[in-house]
Every structure is written in structure tokens, then in C-alpha cells.
From TrEMBL:
Keyword Metal-binding: no
Transmembrane feature ranges: none
GO molecular function: isomerase activity
Signal peptide: 1-28
Keywords for the protein's UniProt record, in alphabetical order: Isomerase, Signal
Superkingdom of source: Bacteria
Species lineage: Bacteria, Pseudomonadati, Acidobacteriota, Terriglobia, Terriglobales
Residues annotated as domain Xylose isomerase-like TIM barrel: 58-252
Pfam families: AP_endonuc_2
Cited PROSITE patterns: TAT
Keyword Endoplasmic reticulum tagged: no
InterPro entries, A to Z: IolE/XylAMocC-like, TAT_signal, TAT_signal_bac_arc, Xyl_isomerase-like_sf, Xyl_isomerase-like_TIM-brl
Organism in which the protein naturally occurs: Granulicella tundricola (strain ATCC BAA-1859 / DSM 23138 / MP5ACTX9)
Protein name: Xylose isomerase domain-containing protein TIM barrel
Length: 288
């Protein structure tokens, strides 16, 4: 377990290594094989540390070599303007995206707008709606409503997938219901490539099939030969970028071609200290 002191020590070591390497914040560089996206980290990856040291977490993300933090509800205890200041003071760019709980979406629209977010993201629908097509239809109707509210405030409402959406249900899937019943002009997609793969999907195919919706990417690698599963509770197979079997050069290049400009590291669990894990993934992205 990483203590707060150890976390800060590791963050300082990561900062020193990053400064030595002089890593550009958007990973631009001569000879790059893929176009430049702007990369960030989803705050959920550091949720335990963020509960007690939000400014330190923002600095750790910056020091690992990332330009953005994608916000998560633990940060919203801060007034919007103060949160913007904390992000700026860390050296990060103003956040463009944030995750908000399904049940609090409508109440957080104005807060997200004050934060200056472009993407207003719902990361998951309630578990009691996963098991029936009617549950997904209910979510779709709600998403259309929230999507209009976001659009009225100059934002794009965006849904983040997991694997449960691809579980067969009565000859179809919850994913198909969501795609059929939501308005592409109001409901966009943040494609999590790990969870797509766990759900038996090809991230590249999903990306191409939803050119009109895909606006963000989530990045974490998946250990080779891990089984397909629709169960969020089973042991997961997360690993740092470049250490698994997901085709990141192809996905990132295709995403850029389709107009995606932001992608966020979101490794839910690590077997090494989080600052080290972030640095490994940042270095991999920098190498592309």
C-alpha cells in the first residue's frame, strides 16, 4: 500500500525523471508515427490519494508527463472556480472533460459549465438497469434529455462504455439499444478500449462504426489472452500501455483521423505505485 508520504516521494522522483527527459506535454516530436493527441489521466486512477491531497494529485499527473486531468466526482467538493485554480497551479491545462454520476447528472450541468468543460461524461448507468433492455431504454431516454441540457450550455454529453453493455439480452445488447435510441447529435461516446476488448469487441471497429459519436478515448492495456467477460466484478487484467495486446498506434491514429483530440489514461488498478505506472504509460505514448 502506498502511503501519502511515499506517494509524494514517488511523485517527486517522477517529476525529476520527466524534467530530465524534457517530455513535451502533448507528446509532439520529430519522427512520430502517429499524429499528436493531447493526453491526460482520469482522476479515478488516483481516487484514494485525491481524497486527501487533490493539489498533490494534480501535480503528480503533470509530473508524469500528462497535459490534462479528466475530472471525477471526488473533485467536485471544491467550488468550480477554485478547482480551476488548483488545476492551473499544477501546470496542467484547463480540464476539457469530467465524469459525473448518473443520478446527479442534471444537477451538475451548471457546475460543469462553470468549470469550462467541453465534455460532460456519464461513466456508467445504474447496475439495476443493466439486466434488461427496458433499463437501457430508460437510460437512453434520460441521456437524450441530459444531452440537450449539455448542448444548451455549450457542452457535449458523452457516455463512457464498460463491458456490461455488450452482454446478450433477448437477441440483442444494451449497447445496440443505446445506439438506436439516443440521438447522435446529443449523445457522444468516450470509448474505453480496454472494456470494449473485455466485452468481446474490436475497438478499431467500434471506433470506425461510430465516427459521428466518438469524441474521446480511454486508455489502459489488457494482458494478452485474458478472457472475454461481461461481469464487472470478475478479476480484471489491467496493465500499463505497451505491455498488453491492444493496438494503440492503430487506434490513436484512427481516432485522430476521425477528429478525436483527447485521450485519457484510466488504469483502474496497478500492481506498482501509481506514479511509476503513469510514467510507464506516458513514456510509451511519447515513443509512438
Amino acid at each position: 500500500m502506498t502511503t501519502r508520504r511515499r506517494f509524494l516521494q514517488l511523485s517527486a522522483a517522477t517529476a525529476a525523471a520527466t524534467a530530465t527527459a524534457a517530455m513535451p506535454r502533448a507528446f509532439a516530436g520529430p519522427g512520430q508515427k502517429i499524429p499528436t493527441l493531447t493526453y491526460g489521466v482520469q482522476l479515478y486512477m488516483l481516487r484514494k490519494q485525491a481524497a486527501t491531497d487533490l493539489p498533490g494529485v494534480f501535480r503528480a499527473i503533470h509530473d508524469a508527463g500528462f497535459a490534462q486531468v479528466e475530472l471525477y466526482p471526488i473533485a467536485y467538493r471544491e467550488p468550480a472556480q477554485h478547482l480551476r485554480t488548483l488545476i492551473a497551479d499544477s501546470g496542467l491545462q484547463p480540464s476539457v472533460s469530467g465524469h459525473f454520476d448518473y443520478l446527479g447528472l442534471e444537477a451538475k450541468l451548471d457546475y460543469a459549465h462553470t468549470l469550462g468543460l467541453k465534455y460532460f461524461v456519464c461513466p456508467m448507468i445504474p447496475k439495476d438497469q443493466w439486466e434488461t433492455l427496458a433499463g437501457f431504454k430508460k437510460a437512453a431516454d434520460f441521456f437524450n434529455k441530459i444531452g440537450q441540457g449539455a448542448k444548451d450550455r455549450g457542452m457535449e454529453f458523452t457516455f463512457h462504455n464498460h463491458c456490461y453493455e455488450f452482454k446478450p439480452l433477448d437477441g440483442t445488447t444494451g449497447w445496440n439499444v443505446l445506439m438506436k435510441e439516443t440521438d447522435p447529435a446529443l449523445v457522444k461516446l468516450e470509448l474505453d478500449c480496454y472494456w470494449l476488448t473485455q466485452g468481446g469487441q474490436n475497438p478499431m471497429s467500434i471506433l470506425r462504426d461510430h465516427k459521428d459519436r466518438a469524441v474521446l478515448l480511454h486508455l489502459k492495456d489488457r494482458i494478452a489472452n485474458s478472457p472475454v467477460s461481461f461481469d464487472m466484478g470478475t478479476p480484471q487484467h489491467f496493465t500499463e500501455l505497451g505491455k498488453g495486446n491492444i493496438d494503440w498506434p492503430g487506434i490513436l491514429a484512427q481516432g485522430y483521423k476521425q477528429g478525436i483530440r483527447y485521450a485519457f489514461l484510466d488504469q483502474d488498478g496497478t500492481t506498482i505505485p501509481i506514479p511509476e505506472s503513469m510514467k510507464i504509460s506516458a513514456d510509451y505514448l511519447h515513443s509512438l
